[in-house]
Amino acid sequence: MTIPVRQLKNGFAMPLLGMGSWMLGGGAERDPASDGEKEAAALRSGLELGFRHIDTAEMYAGGFSEEIVGCAIRGWKRSDLFLTSKVWKTHLAYDEVLRACERSLRRLGTDYLDLYLIHQVDDAYPLEETIRALDRLADEKLVRHIGVSNFAVARLERARACAGHPIAANQVHYNLAVREAELSGLTDYCVEHDIMLIAWRPLQKGMLDAEAPELLREIARRHGRTPAQIALAWLAAQPNTVTISTMRDRRHQLLNCEALEFTLPAEELLRLSREFPGQEAVSGAVPLR
C-alpha cells in the first residue's frame, strides 16, 4: 500500500497517516518486562505495509521507544522514511534542547530528523530560547523541519515571530470528539499560515465498534466500513491535517490504511462535524496552551 502524502502550499509534506510509538516499551518510564522486540516487529510490519512516518519522543518509555524505532528502521533507506521526535518540557533550555536532540538521534540510529517538535509547554523556559535552539539544529541540518505540540494560537504566533525557520507543524489532540483545535481557531490559523496540524489520538473511547454512537455506526454500515475507519476518514478530510496512531498489529494497520482508500461525501462530513455526540471543547488529556 502507498500512504497518501499531504503537501502544503509552502512545499512541506507528510504522510497522511503515520505510526505513533506512545506506550511502546513503557509509558513515561521503560517497562522492565519489555525487550522491545514485539514492538519493533509491529513497526517493521507497518513499514512493509507501506507506512513511512514514525512519530516518537524522548519522553516515551524514558527514551526506550526511540531505541525501538531505531531497531525497526535498521536496514531501511533513510530517505524513504519520515521520522518525528520531540523534546520534553524539562529540556527546553537552549543547551538542553541541543543535547536532547543529540541523544534522540543516537537512540534512533540516524543523523537527522525530518521533524523535531517541542513536546509540551513549560513557561519556566523562555520560548525564544527554545526556538533559537531549534533554529540552530535546523541550520546544522540535524533536523529538516521544526515545530511544536499542544500550542494554542497565541503561543504559536509567538513561536513563528521568533523563529528563523518556518514552524512547519503543530501536533495536538484532535478527533471527532475533541474539537478544541477548531473551536479555539487553531485549525483556521494553521490553514491561513500554511502549518500542518498533526492530530494525535485520532481514535479514542466512543469511536470504536460497539461503543460508537449510532451516527458513526450508521455511516459505517452505509459504506461497509468500521466506525473507527469512518472517524479516521473524517479526520483525513480536514484541511492541513495529518494524523498518527499507535498500531500494535498488522490487522490494526490494515484497517487504518483502508480508511484512507475512500472519501466521505460532503454531507456526511458535515453531519459528523455538527452532530457527533459528546464533543469536548477542551482536551481532557493535554489542553492547548
In short:
The protein has 289 residues and is of the alpha/beta class. The chain contains eleven helices and ten strands.
Primary descriptors:
two-stranded antiparallel sheet; 8-stranded parallel sheet; 289 residues; globular; 10 strands; alpha/beta
Layout: helices, strands, pairs:
Blueprint: E1 5-7, E2 13-15, E3 17-19, H1 37-49, E4 53-55, H2 64-73, E5 82-87, H3 94-108, E6 113-118, H4 127-139, E7 143-149, H5 153-162, E8 167-173, H6 180-183, H7 186-192, E9 196-200, H8 214-223, H9 227-236, E10 241-245, H10 250-258, H11 266-275
Provide structural commentary.
The protein has 11 helices and 10 strands. The chain is of the alpha/beta class and 289 residues long. The strands form 2 sheets. Strands 3-10-9-8-7-6-5-4 form an 8-stranded parallel sheet, covered by helices on one side. Strands 1-2 form a two-stranded antiparallel sheet. The longest helix has 15 residues, at 94-108. It is globular.
Q: How many beta strands in the DSSP annotation?
A: 10
Strand content: 15-25%
Return Rg in Å. 18 Å
Which class of secondary structure composition applies to the elements? Answer: alpha/beta
For the sheet with most strands, the description reads: 8 strands, parallel
- Strand numbers in spatial order across the main sheet: 3-10-9-8-7-6-5-4
| Global outline | globular
For the record, give the distance between the C-alpha atoms at the N and C termini, rounded to a whole number: 37 Å
